[in-house]
Structure formats: structure tokens, C-alpha cells
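Weekly structure sync, notes
Attendees: PL (lead), two postdocs, one rotation student
Agenda item 3: pending single-chain targets
PL asked that the sequence for the first pending target be pasted directly into the notes so everyone works from the same version. It is reproduced below exactly as submitted, 500 residues in total.
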Amino acid sequence: MKAVQAYWKELAAGVGIGVVIALAIWGVDVTPILVLAALLVLVQVMQTGRFAGSRRLETLTVDAKNPINSPITFDDIGGQDTAKRELLEALEFINNKEKCTQLGIRPLKGILLAGPPGTGKTLLAKAAASFTNSAFVAASGSSFIEMYAGVGAQRIRQLFAAGRQAALQQGKESAIIFIDEIEVIGGKRGRHSSHLEYDQTLNQLLVEMDGIQEDSDVRLLVIGATNRPDLLDSALVRPGRFDRVVRVDLPDKQGRLHILKIHSRNKPLAADVDLEKIAGETYGFSGAHLESLLNEAAIHALREGSDVIRERHLREALEKVVLGEKLNRKPREEERRRVAYHETGHALVSELLQKGSVSSVTVTPRGQALGYVRRKPYGDYYLYTKEQLLEQIAVALAGAVMEEIFFGSRSTGSKGDFQQAVEAAHQIIDCGMSALGVVSKEHVRPDEINKEVQAIIAEQEKRVRKLLVERRAVAEALAGELLREESLSGERFRELLKVS
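Predicted structure, written out during the meeting:
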């Protein structure tokens, strides 16, 4: 049908061009005809949204019986047991339509996946399509917005039509429409006063979701993904549109271990590799970070010509993922010496306040850092006590205090440390754990807040100075060893600390 329509359009265009040429040869003024034709073409282009190069939507066929594209399943996703459980419950209306109808359950129209980047929101959407044997149509929120009015709304209509068409072509009864970065088109209305294209696009999405019929030949489910659910318009997240919000958070230790095991299935690991230990040292890592960690470790093994991935490859990869690649720049000897004492101060105070907390110390430049102390957390903390926050401040200040003790002055290398210390002090005040008591920062003068922050930091600076001065000889010996070796593991650092 489309081929026939294209044929007649080409034929009509050819005849029209021929008529215009003939009129021009006969001396007829064809300028009005050309202007009218140009206006008609412009209107057609604006209606179809082809100014942006006619971007096409990605359509992925997912068929469990014929896995051409190796479909993602829920077993391939680790560290998100709660999110998977909620999502599976929401997908029951597709797999058990009759039972849901019998119980009078209204099918969900939309599911919102909300969480930090790299936590597996796209993978969950693809796994949902595989689990329900549905057609899968994906698009990014940024692909709907153009400077021309009506283009975004037109593409929304095309997206829903593509979902139904994909399901019919694949012989499926359902389709999942996945919209990534949905906050781009689903943001609160009225923010863009100079450009209403955003609001028109959102309005069209609301209309399409309202028009999803339960008795349609193709059952549609919209899955949106966002890092900022707070930016979404209230009309979009109300019941009847996005009925359920599924949190996809950063994985805990067991979740990270599960992810590491999944991504290491096709990688030869040496006998000395302890994935559980790596999982414990990667607090705050997303699934994407962990996949990158194993990939970088494999690259390091390839560079060395090793047939297996060893513990040292993973350690090197971990530091690269956190800080970046090693740099060729070589600081001057006096700078290098100052960095060694600075990092030794961090590591020494960290070990004194929390035994076994240091994972590695290095003076090798990486990324923006001339040196680095990597600490391993004891478990995944979701709440912090005042004592823990004060310890964080003490460790952050230790580098600058160490420089002052041995060199008589501080350097600009402590800038980031001071920012961390101030943030922790503000957290103490915000949570009512300071001398100010329970206060609202909005009703307290800024100078009072600053005075309390300075008091907290001054107290910890005094504490750190006492610890380091009492162990001056130990600190100097550790810094000297770090200068010679350039990097010390946590185990080696603790051995030297005991000997000294």
C-alpha cells in the first residue's frame, strides 16, 4: 500500500514539474505557482517533523522461542530484587489477563522506573518485554523535542502507532513502549514560557495514555525511566497513567556481588580473585560501574599478556574507575614529597579511628588527583551517627594538618578535603546534632551557621593534630616508605604501622 502511495506521489510530482516547465517555456509567469508549491512543501515537512533528519524509533523484537537478539531476562539483572519483584507483579495483567478480568483488576497503563544512572532501568524494561513476550519499542525523551511546533506531539502519536504495529507484525498480543529520559517531555508544565512545544508534547502523551483501551487487539504498557522523578508533571504520575513508581536504587553488597558474578561469567578469573571482597569495597557503585570494572580488569590482563584476570588487575581497574587513568605528568620532587605526607596523614588517621579501613594509598597521579587514599567501608550505611560524621571530618582534615606539621604550611591540594569536611559539618547541623540543637536553617542567621561549622571543624582539627603529633616518627616513616614504593596496599600499610 505504501509503495503504491509513493508511486502516485512521485508521478504527481513529475507531472507538476513538467507542467511548470512547459508554462515557463510558453512565457507564463510561474513565480506564484513556485511560491505556493514551496509553502505546501514547508507545511508538509513541519507536520511530519522531518527537519531533524526524520529520526526513526528503535524497535527491538523480543521472542523467547526464537532468540535472534539474545533477549534480556530478569535472571540477567542483579542487585535489583525489590525492583524486579514490583515489576513482575505489575506485569501480571499482561500474562494473566483472564484472571485479572475475573477479579475486576484495571490493567496498569504505565510504570515509572526511577533511580540513579547505570542501575539497570533500560535492562528491566527489556526484561519485562521478554517476560511478557511483548513487542518492544524504545525512544529517548530528547528525540521528541524540536524547535518546530507540533513535531513532538506528532512523534508521540508515531511512537504509540509503532508499538501497535510492531505487535501485529510479530504476531503478539501486547507491546511495551519504553521512554527513556522521560523528564525531558514529562516535566512540569509552565517551565518553558517562551516555548510551548514541551507542553504540547506532554499533552499528547497524556492523551495517548488515556486512550489505551483494555479491549484493544494490542495491550499497551508504557514504561518510563528517569533520574529525576521530582521534575515530572503531577498529571503524568497520577493513578491511571503512571500507576506505579518502581525505585531502582544503587545495589547493596549482596546485590553488587550478584552483579559481579553475572558480568564475570564469560571472563576467566584466577583462583586468587575474591569477588565478595571486591563487592565490599565498591560501595556506591552502580551496575554500569561494576561492568566497567570487570571490563577494565580484562583489558589490564590483556596488556600484560595474562590468560586470566588476577586480583591485581581488579585492583588496578578499581582505581581507574574511581579516579581515571594514570597520568604521565611527574610532579617535582618537593611536590611529590608533600603529596606523600598529605596522603599518609589521611591514611594514618583513618586507621587510628577505624582499624582496617584503608584499602590502598598511592602517590601516582590519576585524573585530577596527585595522590589518593582508598578506604573500604564496613558494610553499607544508610544512617550516620554524629561520631561517624566527625570521623569523616577528621580524616578529611588530616592531610592538611600533616602538611602543616612537617612543612609549616598548607597547599591547594586540600581544597577538596575542606569541601568534604564542611559538607559533613552542615549535615551534623541539619540533623540537629550540633550545639544549635534542632533548628531550621531557613530561620537561623547564616553567620550563626558558619560559626557552628567553624567550631565543629576546629574541634576536629585539634583532635587530628594531637593524633599526628604524638605519632610524628611513625608518620614520617610511613611517608618515606610511600615515597619509595609509590603505592601501598592496606595490608602493607598496617604492617608498617605495627612495626613502626
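Discussion points:
- The first helix runs from residue 2 to 25.
- The mean pLDDT is 82.
Action: rotation student to compare against the earlier draft before next sync.
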